[in-house]
Design a protein that fits this description.
With 375 residues, the chain is an alpha/beta fold. 52% of the residues lie in helices and 13% in strands. The two termini are 40 Å apart.
């Protein structure tokens, strides 16, 4: 019997739940020829949501491409991975797709290679002396050149804020200047560092300012999470009552990833013990199990922080909505507000905390428990 809960990877099918409104809005926006930007903290299920939308849109006849900017570390790797992703989504054979792409690109020669099992893969050979910027422009325009009124494309850029590391705002400006003229291609931008993503799309001096519809992904409504948990446990003949279910949500702070993480551990323990009903105290036991499993990682994450950032973390554990107050500053020995702000920015860049409605919160509620116990 397989575990009915899944975490740590893209969830789909029966593991994906209750994002109907957001899913519909994404599909309607993209299919209507418009661009969309998704804002949500880490582990709220953005990538699973977008991939579900792409899958549904493909069934409607759209050609969809997904590119994770975490795998892109230079203009050259963008060119390679983006053209590779585009070639892979062509309806024709890979050989014909490569031939089609070669007609639009002058800076490299695409080709098809085969592994030991005979499976084909896309590869490129750079042409010496060719202008990388020109090749980059041509690759950015590939979807528009391949698209038509009958075969519209949708491009998903995950971790899009990482584009700023490639060549500052020059790359942003180039990409924006091209895609604004793409008539048969829609784009969805999203990422895990919402503060950087918001800067890109909300600041007037940034190339992507006001360039797409913005959708904020919030926590899933508790009643939907309760229903999901009860149904998933019941699918393996294990019962769980409302009080116990709500306690899971409390410990997970209703963050989708940690709901499934906790439920996964609880189910595993119930199966080992041969239980047909989840006991209330098993939620605390599951938290303890995760703390042990994650202990080395949590210590490494904590120990690489400066003494000042550890003070800020300690303060956030107790006073996340009043971090700049005089009382918190005095109690936790914090210095000037500018120093605290700088520390918060580093912690956000590392994905440890998020900011929402001027409040700060931990992206990992189990790590918060670890900090309360240890610092």
């Amino acid at each position: 019997m397989s575990n009915p809960f899944k975490f740590g990877s893209i969830v789909s099918g029966e593991y994906f739940y209750n994002r109907e409104e957001e899913l519909l809005r994404i599909k309607q926006t993209l299919s209507g020829g418009n661009n969309i930007t998704l804002y949500a903290p880490r582990r709220y299920g953005k990538t699973s949501l977008v991939k579900k939308a792409l899958n549904d849109l493909e069934k409607q006849g759209f050609i969809t491409v997904y590119l994770d900017f975490m795998r892109v570390f230079s203009k050259e790797t963008f060119i390679e991975k983006y053209s590779q992703a585009i070639a892979a989504k062509q309806s024709r054979s890979l050989e014909k797709a490569v031939k089609s792409i070669s007609g639009y690109i002058t800076g490299f020669v695409p080709s098809v290679s085969f592994d030991s099992s005979g499976s084909p893969s896309f590869s490129i050979s750079w042409i010496k002396g060719r202008d990388t910027e020109k090749t980059l422009s041509e690759v950015i325009d590939l979807p528009q050149k391949l698209a038509s009124n009958k075969s519209k494309w949708i491009i998903a850029f995950d971790e899009f804020q990482e584009i700023s590391k490639l060549n500052g705002e020059n790359f942003e400006a180039m990409l924006r200047s091209h895609i604004q003229d793409h008539q048969n291609v829609s784009y969805v931008f999203f990422g895990s560092k919402t503060h950087l993503l918001k800067d890109m799309f909300n600041k007037k001096n940034r190339p992507f300012y006001n360039s797409s519809f913005v959708l904020t992904i919030d926590k899933i409504a508790e009643e939907k999470s309760v229903h999901f948990l009860k149904e998933r446990f019941r699918s393996t003949n294990i019962e769980i009552d409302d009080q116990t279910t709500h306690y899971i949500l409390e410990k997970a702070e209703n963050i989708p990833y940690y709901i499934q993480f906790l439920a996964h551990e609880i189910w595993q323990e119930a199966i080992i013990k041969g239980q047909n009903k989840v006991a209330y105290n098993q939620i605390d036991e599951a938290v303890e199990t995760i703390l042990k499993l994650q202990s080395d990682y949590y210590w490494e994450l904590t120990n690489r922080q400066t003494s000042y950032r550890k003070k800020v973390l300690k303060a956030l554990c107790k006073s996340s909505n009043a971090i700049f107050s005089y009382k918190v500053t005095e109690v936790y020995g914090l210095g000037a507000s500018s120093s605290t702000q700088k520390a918060l920015e580093v912690l956000m860049d590392e994905g440890i905390i998020e900011k929402q409605n001027n409040n700060y919160f931990f992206t990992d509620p189990i790590y918060k428990t670890f900090l309360i116990r240890n610092i």
